[in-house]
Fold:
Amino acid sequence: MDPIAYVNGSFVPLSEAKVSVLDRGFLFADGIYEVAAVLDGKLVDSASHLARLERSVGEIGLALPETTARIEELQKELVARNQLDNGMVYLQVTRGADKSRDFPFPKGVTPTLVMFVTAKDIVNAPSAKAGIGVITVPDIRWERRDIKSVALLAQVLAKQAAAAAGAGEAWMIEDGKITEGGSSTAFILTQDDVIVTRPNSNAILPGCTRKAVVALAAERQLRVEERAFTVAEALGAKEAFITSASAFVQPVITIDGKPVGNGKVGPMATRLREIYVDFARATAV
Ligand code: PLP
Structure:
């Protein structure tokens, strides 16, 4: 079955889904995206993703072409039309296609809204049991990483370097500290059992999974500290892990080929993953 995509008001076969070459997402990366997980045919942590979408578009002066309530309805319809049980819904909104390539915002142009789905068994992903390796690369991105912009070239290069090295993610380094993964939030568990992750700021994307995991950990009286950390600290930690909508909680067992702690998947990452999966199932819509 040809997957179904959503493009500007219509559900169409993915192979026929098209936007103009003048679309500002294509020409200028003038757009925002979101990725929400789908578990058992339902959207995970949807309100959090839609709130971040609203914030991101607001930060670049882009008006959504639909309300977030309507967008959620469209996402649900897309999931149903694709008979998707487990995977992700990708959503992108751009400032639309003008008549020519001019940098300032065009007037009277309707934003482009595109969505498609990807199947993935996130819960049973083998890498969650085995753990992944990460490599480190310099963080060469712009200064508004809190905006979920479609300008992802730095992450494309970082994640290509990781793939070429046989690693599952790239951790980006700035001023000697890890900012975040190419498409995930970085965490460690210190030797005295404190869960550490970098505080939200313009330096990182405010991860929806990060937010949920921090709250779920705190509810269980686990100690959480929001501060930046170095690669040396991560290597000396008990555990490391990443979070994202498309992987949930995933243990990190090596950094640049060196083991984190004992180099094995640790109990905290495993426990937080289970807690998150329970939360995701219980709150999916
Ligand atoms: N940081 C970056 C740079 C990302 O691209 C992503 C997800 O794509 C994340 C963090 C994790 O965010 P979330 O948990 O909302 O998927």
